[in-house]
Amino acid sequence: MIWVLPVWREPCIGLSCISGFAHAKLFIGPVKQTRILNAFKLNSPLVKARTEARALAIIALPVIVAQLLQMGMGVADTLMAGRVSALVLSAVAMGSAMWFFTLMAGLGLMLALTPIIAHHVGANNHSLIREELRQGVWLALVLSLFQMLTMLFMSLLMPWIGVAPEIVAETRRYLMWVAWSMPFTCLYLVPRFLNESMGHTMPMLWTQLLMLPVNVLGNYALMFGNFGFPAMGASGAALSTGIAQTIGCLALYAYTLSAPRYAQYQLRQRISKPDWKHIASIVRLGMPISIGLAMESGMFTATALLMGRFGVDTVAGHQIAINVASISFMVPLGISIALTVRVGQAVGSGNMLEARYRGQLGIAVCGGLMLVSACAIWLSREWLAGLYTPNQAVIAMAAHFMVFAAVFQVVDGLQVGAMGVLRGYKDTKIPMLITVFCYWVVGMGFSLTMGVFGPLGPAGLWGGLLMGLAVAALVLNFRFRRLTRQATYRVV
How far is Cα 458 from Cα 397, in angstroms, rounded to an integer? Predict the structure, then answer.
């Protein structure tokens, strides 16, 4: 531990300073002089930034790859369902959308465990880390029950919104087969967020590497009727998804409970009874996160639906541009999760200055990387669109939309980075209100005014996405600055 004190507070060490630390004379001997000079070198801005960026990358890179692998499961379901029939593809599309919506709602609630446990890690409080794991398990079990009921309720609504009867029947079978795995899907989130909050993200990468081939092999066997199994169509896709989620859950628990690095936390002790007050505190922190995620995904879903007013080529071009943007978004999303961990650990240890520094650097990294991504998308937009379709009209429309996508890459990176930092401070309520206002008042307001009822058409809808994300990035970063302007230095 190196203590570096301002010279004007410690004159006895023999430092006479002119203009701060700019010019210093050391009268303490060559050995101690070398040590102090090394201390200044180790704490130089460039070295400190490089060290922190490396710490962020160690956490973020496995998360980014794991998220891409998770997207791969959805892509595999879609591609393989399309080879069965249009009906199966429609059922998988609708059923997976409902499953994903309920999953995201639960993910937001459970995501509160990351800053909570990160604070305990920073404070070196082993017993509370163990208790968060136990109460997280109870919350996941209760939450999974509500998610199963939610999927059942949404399946009952399909006839009322005009979905074709044959699609309704196939989608309900999909939901019935995938519903049984919801407890395992929710339980998986508990050790995932515990590992992430401690900065160990490789286990999630390995479990996703296990789940993807299980899902693909299950689809091949159950959707098409191979290896002696009956051809189940959409139900087979649901069942293989459930099997993959269950195997991933069991594998991650097996690792977390047996890993030597967690032995000091005694995670294998007998699980305690549910503490409903403790669980309620997790829900209070996680509910705003859940609502914020729902509002953001809702804005993009509403935009996709409104695109349907402008024809098939427009919808197809929009989908291609969104898909390209979604893939690149995995980078700032992974960094955002890493920021929640790094900032949360610093706050938990009481080092508010270090927390602010980590937040500032992380947001800058998000913005810088997405600026590079924006340039790449801008320069290669026609080539990227051509990878998806040979239709020239769709390529032209997608390339046009990618101009907007390239611009909002930067502001999206800044806003998701700021969101991750604020979660590290356990600041979730005000950011939720900010995002609801920015997405639905500013963003959708612009889309409706200039896109649906105005002269811009589809470009106006993309302009709404850009406006909503840009204002959110600005206000969330202002919130971070205001929240941390009273941060004080602590010597480490």
Answer: 10
Q: Does 126 share its domain with 237?
A: yes
The amino acid sitting at 90 is S
- Residue reference for tokens 């999760």: 337
Range of the domain at 28: 7-43
CA–CA separation, 431 and 472 (whole Å): 9
Task: Give the C-alpha separation, 184 to 325, whole Å.
Answer: 30
pLDDT tens profile 401-451: 899 889 888 999 999 999 999 999 989 899 999 999 999 999 989 988 888
Residue 41: predicted pLDDT: 52
Residues 192, 81 share a domain: yes
Q: How many residues does the chain have?
A: 492
CB-CB neighbours of 209 under 10 Å = 13
- What is the spatial distance between Cα 185 and Cα 106, in angstroms, rounded to a whole number? 10
Measure the CA angle with vertex 316, ends 98 and 441; round to 5°.
Answer: 60
**Helix residue ranges, H only, 111-201:** 113-123, 126-157, 165-179, 182-197
Q: How far is CA 266 from the centre of its chain?
A: 29
Check whether residue 270 and residue 295 sit in a common domain: no
In this predicted structure, the answer to whether residue 22 has a pLDDT above a threshold of 80 is no
Same domain, 261 and 375: no
Q: Directed axis angle between helix 276-307 and helix 113-123, to 10°?
A: 130
Q: Same structural domain for residues 29 and 83?
A: no
Three-class SS of residue 124? coil
